[in-house]
Design brief:
Blueprint: E1 9-10, E2 36-37, E3 40-43, H1 46-57, E4 62-64, E5 71-73, H2 79-89, E6 99-100, H3 116-125, E7 130-135, E8 150-154, H4 159-168, E9 172-173, E10 175-176, H5 188-195, E11 202-205, E12 216-221, E13 224-229, H6 235-242, E14 251-253
Parallel strand pairs: 3-11, 4-11, 6-8, 7-12, 13-14
Antiparallel strand pairs: 1-2, 4-5, 5-10, 6-9, 7-8, 12-13
Helix pairs in contact: 1-4
Length: 254
């Protein structure tokens, strides 16, 4: 039976004795409460997803399950929210963060153009574990991309990030939930171990991760596909898919 997370506050009590009179001793106990913030944990349901969407829209960070490992979700267009993600991960801000979107039109929030190869791959593998590196628009904050001219986007194959992105109609950060040097979180117990009192506003408990393989990351330039990282989707999967959509020669790097 899953643990029930009823603790929302921790407090410490100190007793301080004072006042001694000439006739008798009177002891007065003063109670001091020190409130320690505890990250809120909620099971995945409509109400918790509504709250997660509100938290993200208001600049907060939520730990959520995805189709790979758990991720840290913040409003991708908000540079302050992105900074919070780096602080929670204890990670250098020079590393780009991937973006999760809820539908193909949402990619237009991050890029001004999607080429034919990118469209073909998105139609074949989205939702799924394929991250497309595209030229970013001028509206994308620099700290999201490590000041690179590109940004990584994908539609995940999981109900939680899809529900959140479609509730707010905006992209969210999709970086893995882990502190620098530690393994990515795959369940709620690991999330609490790494992130309790870390500054995360909310954790959504979606059970154990169904896959621990990362997404495959590719960049398409002209007729060349550069495989930056081969993950859940293989090179062979990509080659087989594009042959059904593209009638010109495609070359692979990586």
């Amino acid at each position: 039976m899953r643990r029930v997370y009823l603790l929302s506050l921790l407090f410490s009590i100190w007793y301080h004795c004072t006042t001694i009179s000439s006739c008798y001793t009177r002891i007065t106990y003063k109670i001091y409460l020190r409130f320690v913030p505890i990250t809120q944990v909620l099971f995945e349901n409509d109400k918790s997803l509504d709250l997660a969407a509100d938290v993200i829209l208001n600049g907060g960070v939520v730990c959520i399950p995805t189709d790979t490992v758990y991720g840290l979700a913040a409003l991708a267009e908000n540079s302050i929210s992105v900074d919070k993600v780096f602080q929670i991960k204890e990670r250098s801000s020079g590393v780009p963060l991937p973006v999760l979107i809820g539908s193909f039109p949402q990619i237009n929030q991050f890029t001004d153009k999607v080429n034919d190869l990118e469209k073909a791959l998105a139609s074949e593998f989205w939702p799924g574990a394929l991250t497309l590196i595209v030229d970013k628009s001028s509206l994308v904050p620099g700290n999201l991309t490590g000041n690179l001219s590109t940004v990584g986007c994908r539609i995940p194959d999981h109900a939680v990030p899809l529900a959140i992105t479609n509730r707010i109609n905006k992209g969210i950060t999709g970086t893995s939930a882990n502190k620098s040097g530690l393994s990515p979180v795959t369940n709620i117990e690991e999330a609490l171990e790494q992130f309790e009192d870390s500054g995360i506003d909310l954790i959504i408990d979606g059970g154990d991760s169904k896959s621990t393989k990362p997404s495959t990351i590719i960049e398409c330039k002209d007729s060349i596909i550069n495989i930056i990282r081969e993950g859940a989707i293989t090179r062979e999967d990509i080659f087989s898919a594009i042959s059904k959509h593209i009638d010109f020669e495609v070359k692979f790097n990586g």
